[in-house]
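As described in the Methods, two query proteins were run sequentially through the folding procedure within a single session, without resetting any intermediate state between them. The first query and its resulting structure tokens are shown here.
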Amino acid sequence: MKVARYLMCRPSYFGVSYVINPWMENQIGQSDQSVAAQQWDALHRTFTDTIGVEVSLIPPVDGLPDMVFTANAGLVEGCRFVPSRFMHQERRGEETHFIEWFSAAGYEIIDIPGYQEGAGDMLNWTSPTGESTLVCASGFRSDFETAERVASVVNRSTLAVQLVDPRFYHLDTCFCPLPGGHIIWFPGAFSESSQAAIRDLIPSDLRFEVQAEDATRFCCNAVGLTHKNQRHVVMGHVGSDAQTWLEGKGFAVHVRPLTEFLKAGGSAKCLTLRLDSGLV
């Protein structure tokens, strides 16, 4: 049986020490290290003990507080790893450490010039019939031209979307592809033309539109997977209507509060990077 595998990084040096997104404003020095560790541990146990998937760990590095958000390390496809190239100087120090980890693990490193922030801005949606589309966001952190070059490496067609709300600076903060072709998303984060493109691509019965109140608590920054024929979704917050919809589609919903990480602009999806099948 195939077991999903993820990469995580303990929050040993996590904190808010600079501002590169709206969530960080007025939060410098305000994170609670002990609470962050407890929340991260609960998330880790959900994957390893509750669901039963594999989690590898990359050592945290002092001075790189956002390294805990491994989704931004890059993209994985088979034995190939395309490392991110960060927009902000504050995060560029992470690049070398992620490249070294993947290289030591036997991955082929494929470096592509231009700004792109990995699975933060490039998410794979697979239709119920098995066709895959790499949804690529631009607007704040990634260039669509760079994403197209990445898509050629992972051999997927692309859908370009534009983010317009700085609170949702990465695609994974407002768009979550799930097993079976389902998604939860917050349309208000996207330009009108991008909303239309997503609705054209994904049938209405597979889409759930999250309310603004839940979107701003990062309901969409969630992890979907299938294990032992059970669909799971792991998230830091869920609204009652979204939970009802997800359970009606057959998902086991695991809610683990991640409020300390929201102070830096991240939640469950940001804290994980899928290693075995790459882009979901």
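Immediately afterward, the second query was submitted; its sequence and tokens are:
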Amino acid sequence: MAGVTKAVLLAAGRGTRMRELTNELPKPMLVVGTKPILQHIIEGIRLAGVTDVLLIVGYRADVVRDFFGDGSQFDVRIDYATQVVQDGTGKVVELAREFCGSDPFLLSYGDILIEAANYATLTAPSADVEAIVSVKRNEDVSKGGAVFVNDKFELVDLREKPLPGEPTSPWYNAGVYTFRASIFDFTARLQRSPRGEFELTDAIRELAQSGRKVQAFELAGSWADVRDPEILAELNR
């Protein structure tokens, strides 16, 4: 199968934990090193053969649009979609349905930095795989999702922020995915989670438990969820 050439990047949130740092900028536009987080991601996926990018924008969308334009300076084609209501990651993916059509696509949160070499694996799913979920070992799963796998390293369950005493796993959902169009069947029927949001992770769990193959993939090298000012400062040391 030809590699994945489309990517959907989620860049709609303000990132309130960043406090005054995001008064003027959406979180994915904060600078790490010499460039915005989002630019690191776009340059990394371009190296893996991605040519078409959908940026899902919301808070201070103008900053993102002004910086990236049509994408030509980064050797990609960029489209934009606006998330009007912040009601969870599950419904955001719905905004990509038209852009993706029947093609497979990579999806990344706009504040996740990974070693660019990992994108090559994520953009080359084997024919029998419906989705790839990237994972890291020994992160604090109470801050994100615990990924449960079988002996073939296929995802069998995914639990958002397990509480003490609940089942847990050493594998942390690292926030970068590959999907085929089948994911839209599952995001379309999402119900609100206990947090009141439509969770992408619920759709992934349903996909896996419907008998489709969802492969876990351990990211190599460094990984960062730029979730707060402390992590940003650490990355810029």
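The radius of gyration is 17 Å. We note this only descriptively and draw no conclusion about the first query from it.
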